[in-house]
Write a structure and sequence with these properties.
Length: about 325
């Protein structure tokens, strides 16, 4: 039986293409399967995800992904579930996060599992781009740079370049990666859950700092309102439509870099369309772990993730941060 690693290597065959799918938009397809008007967020866990050596079990990662997507869409068959999320015939980008280096970057096993299911749902290998800021960050995730259009591609903005003209919203005036602006029709965020020394938490929305030329310009005020303003730029707001958050490994203190003394294994995936609700859920996960470890709240530590409330306000309207308006499914 082929491993997840073999799958990307052999993806050029396109042998797993299946069927056509609905032309409905993502929200229309998914909302048709829920009676709730709340923003749905799924937290799927598997306490056996990491083996005795702390290595991920790739088969269990795929099964966990299937369970998360099935719970979110209401479709038990993984292929049918993915057909409710992605369009066929369009380029799908998978935005990873390797900034923290090896040990605290988006896990290769998750990237491979998503690529496998995308192809089974009808997305051609060359229509998948795994990308991040640069080659270093992708290599930190265990990925290999590849620009062959007949295979799943993997390259950074250091290859594609950035747009010459900046685009603005609020405090964010940025030059965006051409991978986002010119290549991808839809982007699925694959961030990794981390504590952050300035913003408090980095997950779905802050993952977009990896799509701009100078993310350092957006760190003032604890990244508030920088994170919210950046995510309101139309091309980001419209194309980044789904998050499969990697909470299989995390750091709850001292992030965003690798801190082995504060490493933690939540063994979870956090899935949703509403980036604000996803980030609020992730924030609460970190706060619970910090309390368990005897650490102060992020508010008490002087770095609460205020950008989450800003993203939900009447100016930004990126999603909801009110727990009463979030339909949290823990599976």
């Amino acid at each position: 039986m082929k491993s997840r690693r073999d799958f990307l290597k052999n993806a050029a065959t396109g042998a797993l293409l299946l069927g056509a799918q609905s032309k409905l938009g993502l929200a229309d397809r998914l909302n048709s399967h829920t009676e709730s008007s709340k923003s749905k967020v799924v937290v799927a866990r598997d306490p056996l995800l990491h083996g005795a050596s702390a290595q991920l079990d790739e088969k269990r990662v795929l099964h966990l992904l299937d369970r998360a997507i099935a719970s979110y869409t209401g479709y038990d068959n993984p292929v049918e579930a993915w057909k409710r999320i992605v369009p066929v015939g369009k380029v799908i980008g998978l935005k990873t996060n390797g900034l923290g280096g090896r040990g605290i970057s988006t896990h290769l096993a998750l990237v491979l599992a998503v690529c496998e299911r995308l192809q089974q749902a009808g997305v051609k290998p060359g229509e998948i781009i795994v990308w991040d800021r640069n080659a270093r960050d992708l290599i930190a995730c265990g990925l290999t740079i590849n620009t062959d259009p007949s295979r799943v591609r993997c390259f950074g903005s250091d290859v594609s370049g950035f747009e010459d003209q900046p685009i603005s919203f609020g405090t964010a005036k940025v030059k965006l990666s051409k991978i986002l602006t010119r290549e991808c029709a839809m982007v699925i965020g694959l961030p990794i859950l981390k504590d952050h020394e300035m913003s408090g938490v980095t997950f779905a929305m802050k993952n977009m700092y990896g799509v701009v030329e100078r993310p350092q310009d957006l760190h003032g005020g604890g990244c508030n309102p920088g994170v919210a303003d950046l995510n309101c730029i139309p091309v980001i707001r419209q194309k980044v439509r789904f998050t499969i958050g990697d909470a299989m490994t995390s750091v709850y203190q001292g992030g965003p870099g690798f801190r082995p003394e504060h490493l933690w294994y939540p063994n979870a995936l956090v899935v949703g369309e509403d980036r604000v609700a996803v980030d609020h859920t992730a924030w609460q996960m970190i706060e619970r772990k910090r309390a368990e470890a005897g650490l102060p709240t992020l508010e008490a530590a002087g770095r609460p993730p205020r950008y989450i409330a800003t993203a939900a306000d009447s100016t930004h309207r990126l999603g909801v941060n009110d727990p009463q308006r979030i339909h949290l499914m823990e599976v």
